[in-house]
Amino acid sequence: MIAASRSGDDAAFASLFSAVYASLRQMARRRLSEVDGFSTLSTTALVHETYLKMLGSERPELMDRGHLMGITSHAMRQVLIDYARRQHAAKRPQRENRLAITEIDIAMEDPVDLESIDAALTKLADVDPQQAKVVEMKFFGGMTLEEIAQTLDISTATVTREWRMARAWLRRELGGT
Length: 177
Hints:
Elements: H1 2-6, H2 10-19, H3 21-34, H4 43-56, H5 65-89, E1 98-99, E2 112-113, H6 114-127, H7 129-140, H8 145-152, H9 156-173
Antiparallel strand pairs: 1-2
């Protein structure tokens, strides 16, 4: 399916998305359970918005399932951040979209809002794009360090080191201890 999708077959891309749909729902459910203020966004809506975001951009040349999950992680991040911004811009905004970022494990005392996380990741991408991709794939995509290593074509030890350095950088950037 990946090879057919790479050659521009829309049906193959849709079938590929269907094949990973359960994983995407699990990823979305995990993200939504960790964020306060997203009560009006369902798991299904997040997955479908992510799919539409991926279709709206130029279709990437997929290499493997890990690559697909990495791209999906980025699209899901964009959907969540866009949703948070829309809520914040509303005349009477809902509760702030705050995230207890235990998954990132950066020892923050209080939950952090998604826009701050997005800004920090954007800043990290300017400093070290690879570390930003590792955080995005791990946090938004729920990928394992081994899957990230395979997707980025680097060693697991390198991913582990990048993950550790990125967490320390985010802790400092987001005002943690």
